[in-house]
Write a structure and sequence with these properties.
The protein has helices at residues 35-50, 72-75, 81-101, 117-124, 148-157, 160-169, 175-180, 193-204, 209-220, 225-239, 242-253; strands spanning 4-7, 11-16, 19-24, 56-61, 106-110, 113-115, 127-131, 135-137, 173-174, 186-188. The N and C termini lie far apart (61 Å). α4 (117-124) runs parallel beside α5. By secondary structure, the chain is an alpha/beta fold. A hairpin with a 3-residue loop joins β1 (4-7) and β2. It has a seven-stranded mixed sheet, with helices on both faces. It has one domain (4-199): 2-enoyl-CoA Hydratase, Chain A, domain 1 (Alpha-Beta Complex). Helices cover 48% and strands 16% of the residues. The chain contains eleven helices and ten strands.
Length: 261
């Protein structure tokens, strides 16, 4: 069986036994999504999409987290609107374009926190396998940012009220509750993560790849272009706001933000 390994700066990409494995590899910062991480995730998703030997894609995180969300220490201080716009349309949007374009089954394997954009990556995957120790939060608003993709794809996958609550309050859900509201497919003990993944892959391999591709093409029609444009525009609005400057400063200083003073 052909095996491929490509180590990018922030992501490790491997292909073995028809599984393309994309591992976010910044464990020292809980796999926070930096500019480089978005760039490398886009590259890895492009490789997985084009690789004929890869039939299933796994996204996971190294260490003790899936992803803590945006790397606030890096992206919390845009010097200009132009710099923020380049981040949204030059890095964030291309990543989501690659993820939505992939017609192969995508499985997120979550063991630990999946916050902010990290929770959105899980949400956007076709299936999510989480350890019972994992937690999920659409927490972008707590630093003055926005989990913009949860507003686009969440209504098709989750209990609507819980989706709204998670965004407006930023509160986290344990894996079992996340499963109950549709964010997670399987909530299993940590030691059952890989066996559950392997079982699902075996089942997927019994289905025609063109059938799966066609099903994902149908699902993609649920993504209205107008709503996507609004999501990116509102993300740019938030990360160029005084609230984001306050939230970012508070995060770095490890204090509570003062949005309503």
């Amino acid at each position: 069986m052909r095996a491929v390994s490509k180590e990018l700066e922030n992501v490790e990409y491997t292909v073995a036994d028809h599984l393309a494995r994309i591992e976010m590899n910044r464990p020292q910062v809980l796999n926070a999504l930096s500019k480089g991480m978005f760039r490398d995730l886009s590259t890895a998703l492009g490789l997985a999409t084009r690789d004929r030997d890869a039939r299933v894609v796994e996204i996971t995180g190294a260490g003790n987290a899936f992803s803590a969300g945006l790397d606030i220490r890096e992206v919390g201080g845009f010097k200009s609107r132009a710099e923020a716009k380049e981040f949204v349309y030059g890095l964030v949007k291309p990543f989501w374009d690659k993820l939505f374009k992939c017609e192969k089954p995508i499985i997120s394997l979550v063991d630990g926190p999946a916050y902010g954009a990290g929770a959105e990556i899980a949400l956007a995957s076709d299936m999510v396998i989480a350890s019972t120790e994992s937690t999920f939060a659409f927490s972008g608003g707590r630093v003055g940012a926005l989990c913009c993709m949860s507003g686009v794809i969440g209504p098709y996958l989750m209990n609507g009220r819980k989706l709204v609550e998670m965004n407006l309050s930023g509160t986290a859900l344990a894996a079992d509750e996340a499963r109950e509201c549709g964010l997670v497919s399987y909530s299993v003990p940590k030691q059952e993560l890989v066996p559950t993944l392997e079982k699902i892959i075996r089942e997927i391999m019994r289905v025609s790849p063109i059938s799966n591709s066609s099903f994902k093409r149908i699902r993609k029609t649920d993504l209205p272009k107008t709503k996507l444009k609004t999501a990116y525009r509102e993300l740019l609005r938030t990360i160029t706001s005084k609230d984001f400057r306050e939230g970012s400063s508070a995060f770095v200083a490890k204090r509570a933000p003062e949005y309503y003073r």
